[in-house]
Amino acid sequence: MKRTRAESMEENRARLLAAARRAFAEKGYAAASMDALTAEAGLTRGALYHNFGDKRGLFAAVVEQIDTEMAARAKASGAAAGEGFDALLSEGAAYIDMALDPEVQRIVLLDGPAVLGDPSGWPSQNSCLKVTREAVEGLMAEGVLKPVDAEAAARLISGAALNAAMWVAASAEPERVLPRAKEAFRALAEGLLVRR
C-alpha cells in the first residue's frame, strides 16, 4: 500500500526527532552534527530544514517531546499517590527524580535553558503550569491550601520543582543532592497548606 505525502512527511519528522534525540543526549547540543544526524536518519539537510527550520528548531522539538513525556510520567506518579495535595507533591517529586535520567539531564535541564532560554517560556512548561494552576485552584477551593494568588502559587511550585531538577542535573553528585532537593521542595510546598 502506497503511503501518502503526509504520512511520508510524518515518518521523516519522526526519524529526524529520533536521530536528534540520540545525538543531543550523547554529544550535547553544541557538538551534535547535523550532517551526521541527517545521515543516521537516512535523510538530507533539506528534510531537516523543511521540518524544523534549523538545528535550534529541531532541538526545541526534541525538548518539547521529552518535556511532554516528563509531564506524563509526573502525572502518573501523582495519580499513583492518590489525589489532592499528595498528588501535587508526588508530581513535583517525580519531576525532580527525572533529573537523574541522563537524557533528561543533558537535553532538557542543562542544554535546554542554554539554547532555548528561560524554561518558563517553553510551550511544554506552560502546559504543565496550567495543570498545576488548576490543581492549586481546586485545593484552595477545598480549603486545603491558603487562599493566596493561584497563579503565583502554581508558578512557585512549578519553578521550585524545575529549579531543584536543574540543581540535581548540574551537580557533580546528583544522587547526593536529590534527596536534599526533594526535602526542600516538600517543605516549600507544605508552606501553602492550611493548618487546622
From TrEMBL:
<dbReference type="InterPro" id="IPR001647">
    <property type="entry name" value="HTH_TetR"/>
</dbReference>
<dbReference type="InterPro" id="IPR049484">
    <property type="entry name" value="Rv0078-like_C"/>
</dbReference>
<dbReference type="InterPro" id="IPR009057">
    <property type="entry name" value="Homeodomain-like_sf"/>
</dbReference>
<dbReference type="Pfam" id="PF00440">
    <property type="entry name" value="TetR_N"/>
</dbReference>
<keyword id="KW-0238">DNA-binding</keyword>
<dbReference type="GO" id="GO:0003700">
    <property type="term" value="F:DNA-binding transcription factor activity"/>
</dbReference>
<dbReference type="InterPro" id="IPR050109">
    <property type="entry name" value="HTH-type_TetR-like_transc_reg"/>
</dbReference>
<dbReference type="GO" id="GO:0000976">
    <property type="term" value="F:transcription cis-regulatory region binding"/>
</dbReference>
<dbReference type="Pfam" id="PF21351">
    <property type="entry name" value="TetR_C_41"/>
</dbReference>
<feature type="DNA-binding region" description="H-T-H motif">
    <location>
        <begin position="33"/>
        <end position="52"/>
    </location>
</feature>
<feature type="domain" description="HTH tetR-type">
    <location>
        <begin position="10"/>
        <end position="70"/>
    </location>
</feature>
<protein>
    <submittedName>
        <fullName>TetR/AcrR family transcriptional regulator</fullName>
    </submittedName>
</protein>
